[in-house]
Amino acid sequence: MYLEKLYLINYRNYLSLENNFSAQVNILIGNNAQGKTNLIEAIYYLSIGKSYRPARDLQLTNWNADYFCVSGLVRNNFGKTKLDITYRNNEQTNKEIKVNSSKINKNAELLGNLTTILFAPEDLNIIKGPPSERRNLLDNDIAQVSPAYNTKLQQYNRILNQRNYLLRKIAMNQTADKQLDVWNQQFLEMSNDIVEKRLEVLEKLTPLTRLMQRRLTEGQENLEIRYILNKDKPIKRNSEIKNLLLAEMNKYRGEEFKRGITLCGPHRDDLLISLNGNDLKYYGSQGQHRTTVLAVKLAELEFFKAESGEYPVLLLDDVLSELDQQRRDQLLNTIQEKNIQCFITTTEDNSFLWHKNTTLQKFHISEGKLVTQ
Ligand SMILES: Nc1ncnc2c1ncn2[C@@H]1O[C@H](COP(=O)(O)OP(=O)(O)OP(=O)(O)O)[C@@H](O)[C@H]1O
Ligand SMILES: [Mg+2]
């Protein structure tokens, strides 16, 4: 699929933009603070209805305005789709999302119309950040291909909250511990479903990521991703998940009563990512972190293609810094081979890095305006 046209009104420093893009490589060239990241963010916003940066809709609105619009025309194997999102800062229902001019009620209904894979500097947190970053990576991928998973996660969080509430009361001797049994069965079933789904998707993503890592490093780096149950138990698919979860629940029962909080379950799981046998988080170099995140993103491209039949749009913000020539060449080669739509930001025109036969469209960005070259 590809984004044929983008319209912006009052989105960050873009007061008004109407632009056609190439179905292949779009290079966004501009000095610092001109609007390169804002444009990438706007495309991402159109795909899932929120930003990936810690910004609320109000902060995405141009400083001198009280509303913004992001619209686009997406083409895929089945035809074209028009997406429109409008945010107003002065009404009760302040966000309106339309797919082909029909209003939708939930963000989830937007998913799948424009699927994007984003690499942003923040994504290095997948390696360096807390376990929640790695769980989110997996959960977001799953939610995009099976929307029911999102509902399941929400249900799990509700049960988790109820369980925590009861545990707090038990810890303060305000209720009997028998009360918890009602929730435990549901908690176990939910946990089991979530962990099984995560393992299923991880089993697809891991070989693809390994392949991409080997490709980017010309065979020098072997990547391993393992699912870690409750912070210390590596598990594989087809293990006796439910029994393992039950064993964890029993193991922590006493401590949960004392501390008044749930100490096991998929909200405490993690992924262990290692390179040539070493935990990347503690031993990896900056370039290795970056390469691995890219390998994950390129693997996601293949994963979505396998699930939906179409490649998503690739958004690469500030990707080339810290990559040596070999890794950079391998990255660009991989993109060029796939014939996908890609947006890549840069502060200097580096179009010479691409193969001569690649269709490139260059845009210069200055103070929230785009000039095609
Ligand atoms: N809500 C907003 N309204 C108006 N302008 C905004 C808003 N939010 C951010 N900006 C402006 O957008 C500019 C940053 O744009 P952006 O992050 O896209 O820069 P960039 O081209 O990616 O730069 P760099 O090369 O440094 O990453 C900021 O300097 C800020 O002035
Ligand atoms: Mg930027």
Which terms summarize this structure?
Glutathione S-transferase Yfyf (Class Pi), Chain A, domain 2; 373 residues; 6-stranded antiparallel β-sheet; binds magnesium ion; 2 domains; Rossmann fold; binds adenosine-5'-triphosphate
Question: Could you explain the architecture of this structure?
Answer:
The chain has about 375 residues and is of the alpha+beta class. Helices cover about 40% and strands about 25% of the residues. The strands form 3 sheets. The protein has a 6-stranded antiparallel beta sheet with strand order 2-1-4-5-6-7. The protein has a 6-stranded mixed beta sheet with strand order 8-13-14-3-15-16, with helices on both faces. A hairpin with a 3-residue loop joins strand 9 and strand 10. Bound molecules: adenosine-5'-triphosphate and magnesium ion (MG).
The fold-level CATH name of the largest domain is: Glutathione S-transferase Yfyf (Class Pi), Chain A, domain 2
Helix-strand topology string? EEEHHEEEEEHHHHEEHEEHHEHEEE
Question: Assembly state here?
Answer: single chain
Q: What strand line-up does the widest sheet have? A: 2-1-4-5-6-7
Low-confidence stretches: none
User: Which ions, cofactors or small ligands are bound in this entry?
Assistant: adenosine-5'-triphosphate, magnesium ion
Give the CATH H-level superfamily of the largest domain: RecF/RecN/SMC, N-terminal domain
Supply the helix-strand structural class: alpha+beta
* C-alpha termini separation: 24 Å
Shape: globular
Report the average pLDDT across residues: 94
Number of strands: 16
Number of helices: 10
Work out the strand percent.
Answer: 15-25%
